[in-house]
Amino acid sequence: MIEVSGLTKQYGSRTVVDDVSFVLEPGTVTGFLGPNGAGKSTTLRMMTGLVPATAGSTRIDGRPYDALANPAAVVGTLLDASAVHPGRTGRTHLRLMAATVGVPATRADEVLELVGLTDAAGRRIGGYSLGMRQRLGIAGALLADPPVLVFDEPANGLDPEGIRWMRDLLRGHAARGGTVLLSSHLLGEVESTVDRLLVIGAGRIVADGPVSDLLGSEGTAVHAADPAALTRALETAGFHVQHGADGALVVPGAEPGEVGAVAAAGAHVLTDLRPVRRGIEDLFFQLTA
Amino acid sequence: MTTTTTTPAAVPAVVRPPVRAGGPSPVALVGIEVRKSLSTRSGRSLAAASALLAPAVTAFVAAASDETLDSVTGPLGFMGMLTGLVLLSLGVLATAGEWSHGTVQTTYLLVPRRGRVLAAKAVAVALLGATAAAVALALSAAVLAGMVDGASWDGAGRAAAVLVAAGAALALTGAGVGAALANTPAAMTTLYMVILGVLPLARTFKPEVGSKLDPAEAVLNLSQGHAETQSVLVLTGWVVVSLVAGAVVTRRRAVA
């Protein structure tokens, strides 16, 4: 479990992270969202001891990061895929990490295979694309198969296959009881990967909760064989009906079950019935504007 | 840019590798730092240059000079100083290079106690410096033995011991300045400008400055048994001041 309490970072009179607190439970993937400069990366760096906090604390399994006996065995971290020496090969980079973490040197080849970099393992990292560096960073984070993963923008540069693989990796990690904190600006990717959202704006947490709660339901969209008849039935039942651009009837504030019940009572044929959810993009801009 | 990736393994196999319970031991950390220094072309090139430059210059001078050499301690001292000047760069790369390339992030994520890392780097750099200086001196001595007749070898053993220690000291100085400035070009420029530019210039106006501050002059004096106490103090001062500055800055600096 990760407990962040009152993390604050000030540079002179400027506060870039302001009293950020949250708790991450095992078995969850949490998305950490915010616009550029909102304080995401600074928060992640304070959590891992890279940037000294002005105030507040982080406890991982009950201890500050720098008090963990072997941090990489507890937290796998990818903060900046470009923070690698371009003159080393991918394999050498991982073997140096493996020696420091205390896993067998052969583990480097195992994680290289896991991220699909076996063929490039003997090449200098300076010749890697951004996506390959991201994979290398993910490989480094997985060396000790730690229970906690903290990734900052891991999907940058990954191709669609890589993004799907990473999503499966993170979901699988959480399914095994792991804890994942994922920072990303790819909102669609976050929406399809995470259970919970932390949204940071101007250094403060502006939203924290399950994705389903934050996105919520704004009503129901329904397609019917006879839209006019269904509209009359819904209005008779007390619902307000709007006409969508694609021929759908939109019923604000109604649950799909309520609309379905009205349709069933009047023997209306439906071809589509679904909740209207607020898009994550709308939520993001609303919270961080 | 060519992308060479294969399809990643489907869902990761859940076989947790054996992981050491604690952090790396001090000895292991020193070994890792040595490997880091020699795992790049620039590191290997500097190590090779520091070991081979002095014997190459010795061979060139011995072949080109017609003068009779009384004692080998003078040339050995000069070659030791030359080696030490190259070793400054090796030390700088070990510390500032990590900040310049951003690898310091991985280093401190894996071992967050920065003092431990800096101590291991200091030992590793000292070992590399001493080893390179020893190789350079052995090769230089072999060149002198093969190309110069009639020179005295009295004091050569003491000079060699001094120069091996000086190699370690100058490499440590480079590591300290590199850690303090956290920028490879800035650290190298500063060191070489001070040692090869500012101090010699200052010495033309105030000759005592050289004997009190110049590490290169201290190495030359020590190798020939002159002003030993003062020379040891000069070298010790450079090592201590640079390492303390490097440690203080490293402990406080944020890793962006």
From TrEMBL, chain A:
Keyword Transport belongs to the record: yes
Pfam families documented for this protein: ABC_tran
Highest taxon, organism lineage: Bacteria
Keywords: ATP-binding, Nucleotide-binding, Transport
Domain ABC transporter: 2-227
GO terms of molecular function: ATP binding; ATP hydrolysis activity
Record-linked PANTHER family: ABC TRANSPORTER, ATP-BINDING PROTEIN
Family: Belongs to the ABC transporter superfamily.
Protein name: ABC-2 type transport system ATP-binding protein
UniProtKB/TrEMBL annotation, chain B:
Full protein name: ABC-2 type transport system permease protein
Keyword Transmembrane part of the UniProt annotation: yes
Keyword tags: Membrane, Transmembrane, Transmembrane helix
Organism: Geodermatophilus amargosae
Keyword Transmembrane among record annotations: yes
Transmembrane segments: 45-64, 76-97, 118-147, 159-182, 189-205, 232-250
